[in-house]
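Q: I'm teaching a short session on how sequence maps to structure, and I want students to see two examples side by side rather than one. Could you give me a first protein with its sequence written out and its structure tokens following it? Keep the formatting plain so it prints cleanly on a handout.
A: Of course. Example one:
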Amino acid sequence: MAPQNHSPALPAPAGSAPYPMAHPGYGKRSAPNQLAPVADDFALLPLRERYVAGFIERLPEGASMSVKCLAQQIPLYGQQAMASALTALSVAGHLRRVRCAVGDGDQVRWVFRTSWSRTARDNEWWAAHLAGGPLSVPTAAPTAAPGPAPAIPVPDAPVPAPEQAPAQPAVPAQRAAVPEAHSPAYLALAELGRRDTRLTLSAEDCAVLEGLAEQWFARGVNTDYLTGALLAGLPLKVGSPYGFVRDRLIKKIPPAAPAAPTPPPAGAPVRHVLMECTECGAPGPAEALPDGLCRPCRRPKTATPGPTPEPPVERDVTALVAGLRDLLKAP
């Protein structure tokens, strides 16, 4: 009969507890278009920020990024030190806190995310990233391109003589009469004399004033608008049509129309994204939060002065002594 071994089995080695994850849709989100990781990614940061950045870089997607959770996982720093480190990483261009609206109709809710980029980014890149615009791709150090291959010498070969083109008969070219095309600005100026004889301009006047009239068309007006503005309120007699029209072209030019925003393509999802201040959590557009901080948090911290103590009240010693004597005389 084989002997039985009653010794207990060796315990399995204890593994590290998994990092707490945020709810679906929350937590860490890595930014696109990053450079390949290298050993000195965060070498320019201070020691504390370099340690925290390396820890966040190793976290999985969707990991909880709250200050309390990070402080529990990094025993070297408390919650206040962790909040200061995240603020410094935001200023350095590695981190942004955002709010995103998800859902449709009445089921829209706001989720909180932390966008993380191992490659430091500027404010313009973060604004384009949150707005869904085109993003610039960082480029690594340029490498020397291989030069062209050396030419291989070949033995001399007889070069064929070029073929002679047949001689063309010398016929003088006939010049066709092509009417000269004028711009809409020139034609609008020429139309003034037909609308009102007081503003009759010559061909030379129209050619000189054509540049001023083209500035009106560049600001989005048409021919009817231009001629109507030049013919409105004419005096009974115009001594110099050229000078009168030139003066109105300069002084009555309309303001430049604002550029219309480019509508999103049909079927594209509408993104409702607000950036959050990394330090206090105040929401706002990316333009109002440079470095991920709102205006009050960007101001230097100054000590709040305490209340000024009031000077001691002067007391009448003679009246005080007289009052004490009266108290002693009382039965």
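Q: Perfect. Now a second example for contrast.
A: Example two:
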Amino acid sequence: MLHVVLFQPQIPQNTGNIGRMCAVTRTRLHLVHPLGFEINDRNLKRAGMDYWHSLDVHHHADWAAFKASAAAPRRLWLFTTHATRTFWDVTYVDGDGLVFGNEEAGAPEWLHGELGDPQRVKIPHANGELRSLNLSTAAGIATYEALRQVGLPAGPALGG
């Protein structure tokens, strides 16, 4: 199983889009708190997340709690615009975690330091004047590349 890890996400619609993708691909979603919004029925419905209750989602009080969790991934890849290595240069394996910083500040410097350069990757883009992709777009691109390498989990056909 692959894991998508959102570090303190701020925008419920992005988290909802990523949650939908995780539900469809049978990828585990980890939310590292604090979040910039509340997960409640009202917000879930507003963000179109009516499937949320069937999603494999794990909440963690902070990064330390995430790392200590038995449900945490074995190996982590931090997606960041500050990396020199592209996400295509990685061989993903079952059990990997794809880590994304939040929409406002990305990942904090201490997290960059903890994971180190070999575990930091970027999604390249042609327009150097633009900072980065939307969080849910980046998570989708990264997840599907990892799934392409690892293989989709067994189950009904995706899409539809």
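Q: What should students look for in example two?
A: Point them to this: The first strand starts at residue 3 and ends at 7. Also worth mentioning: The mean pLDDT is 89.
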